[in-house]
């Protein structure tokens, strides 16, 4: 293994020791047990990091950005897992509530940022201020491979091991409650994303308004999240995932299936961009 790739893997191995515990296994022998979520996270981190072909100058240049993203995401996963260990994510603290959620949120900071505002560069959405019921549902879907398991969903592959660090009772509710209590941040739209908000309004009122509301406020009873205050590039990416079967295809994803059917009504990517452009004109 190249030295540049071995180093982060060694860090991940050291991190595994945090949160490990020894238990008696008969005749005085001891066995070290580590939380399953930590082991899964390490495996994911290693698979993402160990990509020697990234530095291969003969590699097809079209494929390099995706490979580089894998390296970046792998590093962020290692950092987040370390944060989980240090914040008690692998310990025996069974507290629940917003205070506990604030500690658990440290696992999310490497990608989503301290203010929960996301990152255009990392293609990570803003999550601060979203309803707790939606955050809980999303985390549960990631944990159960209902969301983010499609082979082409690189963002989902990054998120699934992070959700699985919230394996103790009350963890999901705690972090969702804390993130929901955070003020909605400003978000960074993608320069030159385009989209016609006038045309987008017609699509929105014909396709989206029944579930997400006329002001994009969402509807808890229908499992539809608010759309205002989210970056245009994220809106476009998620609608296209629904449209092309990367989201909403799992048989247990009822709300996702509803959204996939609506996304299919939009004729093309230009219409998707128009809808996102219109949503960005709605008051937060």
Automatic annotation (TrEMBL):
Key word Signal present: no
Top-level taxon: Bacteria
InterPro entries (alphabetical): Cyt_c-like_dom, Cyt_c-like_dom_sf, Cytochrome_c_Oxidase_Subunit
Cleavable signal peptide: none
The entry's keywords: Electron transport, Heme, Iron, Metal-binding, Transport
The Cytochrome c domain, residue ranges: 96-183, 195-283
Parts forming coiled coils: none
Gene3D superfamilies with a match to the protein in the record: Cytochrome c-like domain
Keyword Electron transport belongs to the record: yes
GO MF terms, alphabetically ordered: electron transfer activity; heme binding; metal ion binding
PANTHER family from the UniProt entry: CBB3-TYPE CYTOCHROME C OXIDASE SUBUNIT FIXP, CYTOCHROME C4
Name of the protein in its database record: C-type cytochrome
Organism: Eiseniibacteriota bacterium
Organism placement in taxonomy: Bacteria, Candidatus Eiseniibacteriota
């Amino acid at each position: 293994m190249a030295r540049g790739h071995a180093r982060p893997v060694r860090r991940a191995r050291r991190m595994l020791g945090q949160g490990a515990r020894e238990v008696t296994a008969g005749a005085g022998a001891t066995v070290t047990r580590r939380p399953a979520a930590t082991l899964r996270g390490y495996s994911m981190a290693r698979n993402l990091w160990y990509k020697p072909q990234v530095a291969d100058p003969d590699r097809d240049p079209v494929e390099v950005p995706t490979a580089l993203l894998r390296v970046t995401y792998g590093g962020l996963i290692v950092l987040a897992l370390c944060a989980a260990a240090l914040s008690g994510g692998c310990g025996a603290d069974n507290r629940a509530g917003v205070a506990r959620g604030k500690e658990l949120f440290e696992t999310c900071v490497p990608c989503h940022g301290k203010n929960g505002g996301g990152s255009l560069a990392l293609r990570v959405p803003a999550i601060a201020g979203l309803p707790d019921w939606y955050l809980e549902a999303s985390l549960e879907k990631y944990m159960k491979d209902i969301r983010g398991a499609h082979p082409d969903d690189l963002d989902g592959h990054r998120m699934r091991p992070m959700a699985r660090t919230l394996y103790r009772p009350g963890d999901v509710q705690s972090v969702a409650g804390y993130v929901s209590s955070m003020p909605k941040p400003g978000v960074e739209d993608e320069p030159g994303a385009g989209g016609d908000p006038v045309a987008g309004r017609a699509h929105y009122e014909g396709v989206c308004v029944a579930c997400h509301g006329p002001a994009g406020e969402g509807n808890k009873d229908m499992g539809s999240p608010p759309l205002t205050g989210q970056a245009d590039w994220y809106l476009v990416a998620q609608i296209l995932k629904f449209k092309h079967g990367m989201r909403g295809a799992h048989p247990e994803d009822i709300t996702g299936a509803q959204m996939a059917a609506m996304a299919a009504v939009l004729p093309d990517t230009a219409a998707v961009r128009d809808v996102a452009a219109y949503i960005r004109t709605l008051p937060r």
